[in-house]
Amino acid sequence: MVDHPHTEARPAPRRRARLPLAAAALALAALCLLPVAAVALAAATGSFETWRRLAATVLPAFAANTALLALLVALGTAAVGTGAAWLVTMTRFPGVRLFEIALALPLAFPAYVLAYAYTSFLDHPGPVQTLLRTLTGWGPRDYWFPEVRSLPGAAVMLILVLYPYVYLLARAAFLQQSATAWLAARALGRGPWETFLRVSLPMARPAIAGGVLLAVMETIADFGTVAHFGVQTFATGIYRSWFALGDRAAAAQLAFCLLSVALMLAVLERAQRGRARHFNTGKRFEVLAPMRLTGWRAAGAVALCGIPVVLGFLGPAVMLSGMAVGSGQDLLSPRYLGLIRNSVLLAGVTAAVTVAAALVLRFNARLHPGTAGRGAVEVARVGYAVPGGVIAVGLLVPFAAFDNALDAVMRETFGVATGLLVTGSIALVVFACAVRFAAAALGALDGGFAAVPPSIDWVARTLGAGPVRLLARVHLPVIAPSVLTALLVVFVDVMKELPATLILRPFNFDTLAVQAFRLASDERLNGAAVPSLVIVGVGLLPVILVCLGLGRRGAPVAAPEIAARALGAGAGR
After folding, report:
1. CA–CA dist 361, 377 (Å, integer)
2. Which residues on neighbouring strands pair with residue 91, listed in sequence order?
């Protein structure tokens, strides 16, 4: 009789303790949906005259350019990423171990940084055309040279930094393929090339398609590259409509168009990823022995793997270093120290806020594996499909209205002007970046939580541990590496983020990404090389860590999925 009240009373506090956790998770999911809902509402309530004017003037060009750019990037990333993944996984040639890591390094470059390097190198005043004129004696109008500032040029820049999406996912798929189907095809008289096309490629197709869709989503969200090259897409149209033309209705409606396409691609990518796990045949331990290449075949493999590494990483790094030497930009000057401080402050605060929110969402889904818990996590993941410019517009619309209303009330009541209380603060930039990169943090945490057996939760709850104690004393010590990875990838992504920071930053609060864009817009490309190199240097850290984690055959597919969603998120901005 003495023990009975204790056994009856113990579950009640735990149920009460779980309620705030579930409420917090639902509130965080609602905050992640706020920019999407605000864009949809602003577009629906905007003037239809604005929509008709857009449809008759710029909308067809924006749609055509965005679609063509996405198509070129899809084809390019599929070809380069799949071919490189198959070569380093299924064959052996000199330097293959080095290429396994080197082929993912272009992921550290934002596409706009690559655009600055190649513009300086290939433009009319650059060293290539200058040398050509010196050797031939031609004048400026005596020869034709490919125009780097063009839609095909932008596509090449994006392919070079986004093909690692496909490479990482395709490589994981090839690593997990059984030797049974391959050996059966060879026994039936099929050659290596035909076996690859008819056996290996179809089994890896879902993973390849998922990587291509991720690359396409980054392409339609890109702002820095297309703006620098003068290519008119939805991303550049949003920025120009809001700031250059002051037409917020047009900006919201263009943002809604881009949002619709991005969400459609996200649904397709999710479906492809869901089907990917069903295409692995045979037993896991029946790993295919790689084919050893010699002679011209080995030389061809080295060339095919080396070209994307040279064009996407080594070449731009050398170009930027040479540009930085004579730029006159002092990285240790008070101006640059302030830019570094702003970038680190913004990235650090955002990483802490985002990972804390992701922990709440993911831990709640573990304790409450029902529809509400899982739904809150999936809603929070939507941000990775929403371009930074769309999130910026989606936050400016409601918070600008709030600031204006509050200012009017304070003037009327107290005679005090509050001004831009929210929209003029760093908090709104942190909010936007947290929404954008919540999926990156969740992806990094998924593997950590999966490593904790559910039985540990049951034992801890039986012993009376509440959710806070369970997370602090049991889960966090186990998932600490995943938490650090999440902090790192969000930190790096925020350092590279351009459109949301450019639109929402407070007055006199510039970051390294904004400084690089501003200098490049003024055609001061040598100066833009200095902040660009800092951004690339920081971006290398998580890429190398993930590549080292994928170094052994049979690595789990979760690792490249984390890389694709987290490390490279924003690479094409």
Report:
1. 6
2. 291
Close Cβ partners of 469 (under 8 Å, ≥ 6 residues apart): 460
Is 175 inside a domain boundary? yes
CB neighbours of residue 371 within 10 Å: 8
pTM: 0.81
Is 8 part of a structural domain of the chain? no
Whether the CA torsion 215, 221, 227, 230 is positive or negative: it is positive
Closest to 356 measured CA to CA, from 36, 24, 30, 66: 24
Domains: count for the chain: 1
Q: Give domain status of residue 73, yes or no.
A: yes
Q: Which residue has the higher pLDDT, 484 or 117?
A: 117
- DSSP code for 291: E
b/e burial code for range 87-97 (CB count within 10 A of at least 16 → b): bbbbbbbeebe
Element (H, E) at 92: strand 91-92
Two structure tokens written together for 149: 């500032």
Q: What is the pLDDT of residue 571?
A: 44
Checking phi first, is residue 101 left (phi over 0); if not, alpha (psi -120 to 50) or beta? alpha
Q: Which candidate, 47, 111, 70, 432, places its Cα nearest to that of 264?
A: 70
CB atoms within 10 A of CB 385: 25
Task: Map residue 309 onto helix, strand or coil.
Answer: helix
For residue 303, name the pLDDT band (cuts at 50, 70, 90): very high
Domain coverage including residue 288: 18-567
pLDDT beyond 80 at 218: yes
Alpha carbons 552 and 550: distance in angstroms, whole number: 6
pLDDT, position 79:
94
Query: How does pLDDT run across 7-29, given as a tens digit for each residue?
Result: 444 444 444 445 788 899 999 99
CATH number for position 541: 1.10.3720.10
Task: State the CB neighbour count (10 A cutoff) for residue 184.
Answer: 13
Residue 573 forms part of a structural domain: no
> In sequence order, what DSSP letters do the residues of 479-503 get, joined into one string?
HHHHHHHHHHHHHHHHHH--HHHHH
Whole-number Å distance between alpha carbons of 409 and 401:
12
